[in-house]
């Protein structure tokens, strides 16, 4: 069977693209190399603002829990900074359930879905695109949307692949926990715990409580200095010891299934080509805090809408599909560019700014909102710059 669009990768970006395509009657097939439901290494946090864009996430029961703030720690400041909000800061999901539910929504809206179907090649033909799988089956369509993660085979085969030297790494384990224990250690609003620059790493450790489990991870968002000889596993083990000693989690909690994953640290140079669009982590879309679900959902929708427009006009040329890049650039692209530049300052160079910010509740809450993906940096850049200038001058003159 020939399709209008083949979507490769059934994570949030691909499943969202397939859902929006199928809703409009576009003949769509969604492919993924794994059998679903499958485990995806991720903190599982979604900015609260995303729920306003995609109300069906709550309506379909895809949200596991909510957190209303965070305890934030710094290596150069002995006390934590507590941020607690009246409205949810983050929605929490179990990625195994969340991703499976999104794929089912795509199916319910008319998309075909084939899991356990690994793609090995893509051929751009004159009037169509052919996808070839590892078992030598093939699918043909008028267009392809690549949403197959950071190591995207689609991006690689069309010459737009990620710079593999430029990526972060995270270690994650999600541990089941009885609700009474959750309520004991994370009472009330289930505040998260975030340790910035722990052990000098340009990244952070996290503890995200959910309804019946706790997600604990450690992410390195940019390269360390060569002087730092500790590997990430050793640092993660030390982090676990620290949060146990500080009674953030129970001492008896076992960590016997910790796994690692790569995280994009910048977007690819071009997210479109003849008959092909790239979205989610396949395009390197990730925010400053390492989160990618919001951008995955948004880019999946944008890719679907541009594909629908291209099919209606019978124009799947590279020139026409460039509209897609303009759309995501206008929405979240400026923030991604800023985050990419700031990553080199995530370590010691950020300490001065964070030291100034920690005692200013208003600016600190704004920074946390940006870090967690609830506000855009580009829209608040002037406000933050002016406030930091004021704080810097205040600190400077107070020391004279």
Structural commentary:
- The structure is a single chain.
- It contains 12 helices and 18 strands.
- It is of the alpha/beta class.
- It folds into 3 domains: 2-57 and 94-163 and 264-342, FAD/NAD(P)-binding domain, CATH 3.50.50; 165-262; 347-398, no CATH class.
- Strands 1, 2, 8, 9, 10, 11, 17 and 18 form an 8-stranded mixed β-sheet that branches. Strands 6-5-13-14-15-12-16 form a 7-stranded mixed β-sheet, sandwiched between helices.
- A hairpin with a 4-residue loop joins strand 9 and strand 10 (129-133).
- Helix 1 (12-23) packs parallel to helix 4 (95-108), helix 8 packs antiparallel against helix 9 (318-342) and helix 11 packs antiparallel against helix 12 (377-398).
- The protein is globular, with a radius of gyration of 22 Å.
């Amino acid at each position: 069977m020939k399709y209008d669009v083949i979507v490769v990768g059934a994570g949030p970006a691909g499943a969202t693209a397939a859902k929006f395509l199928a809703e409009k009657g576009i003949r769509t097939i969604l492919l993924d190399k794994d059998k679903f439901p499958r485990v995806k290494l991720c903190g599982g946090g979604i900015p609260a603002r995303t729920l306003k864009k995609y109300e069906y996430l709550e309506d379909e029961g895809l949200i596991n829990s909510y957190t209303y703030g965070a305890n934030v720690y710094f290596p150069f400041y002995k006390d934590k900074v507590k941020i607690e909000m009246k409205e949810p800061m983050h929605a929490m999901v179990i990625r195994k359930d969340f991703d499976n539910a999104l794929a089912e929504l795509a199916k319910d809206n008319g998309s075909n879905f084939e899991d356990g179907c690994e793609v090995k090649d893509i051929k751009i033909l004159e009037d169509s695109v052919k996808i070839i799988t590892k078992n030598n089956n093939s699918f043909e369509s008028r267009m392809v949307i690549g949403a197959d993660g950071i190591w995207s085979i689609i991006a690689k085969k069309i010459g737009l692949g990620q710079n593999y030297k430029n990526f972060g790494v995270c270690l994650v384990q999600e541990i089941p926990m009885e609700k009474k224990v959750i309520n004991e250690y994370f009472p009330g609003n289930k505040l998260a715990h975030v340790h910035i620059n722990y052990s000098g790493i340009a990244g952070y450790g996290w503890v995200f409580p959910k309804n019946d489990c706790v997600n604990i991870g450690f992410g390195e968002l940019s390269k360390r200095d060569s002087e730092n000889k500790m590997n990430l596993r050793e640092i993660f083990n030390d982090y676990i010891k620290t949060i146990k000693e500080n009674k953030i989690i129970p001492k008896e909690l076992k960590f016997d299934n910790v796994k690692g994953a790569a995280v994009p640290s910048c977007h690819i140079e071009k997210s479109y080509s003849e008959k092909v669009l790239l979205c989610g982590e396949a395009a390197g879309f990730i925010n400053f805090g390492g989160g990618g679900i919001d951008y995955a959902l948004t880019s999946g929708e944008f890719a679907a809408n541009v594909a629908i427009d291209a099919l209606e006009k019978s124009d799947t040329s590279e020139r026409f599909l460039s509209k897609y890049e303009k759309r995501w650039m206008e929405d979240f692209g400026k923030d991604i560019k800023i985050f990419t530049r700031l990553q080199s300052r995530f370590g010691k160079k950020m300490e001065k700014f964070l030291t100034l910010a920690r005692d200013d509740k208003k600016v600190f809450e704004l920074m946390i909102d940006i870090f967690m993906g609830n506000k855009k940096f580009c829209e608040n850049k002037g406000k933050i710059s002016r406030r930091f200038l004021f704080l810097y001058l205040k600190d400077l003159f107070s020391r004279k």
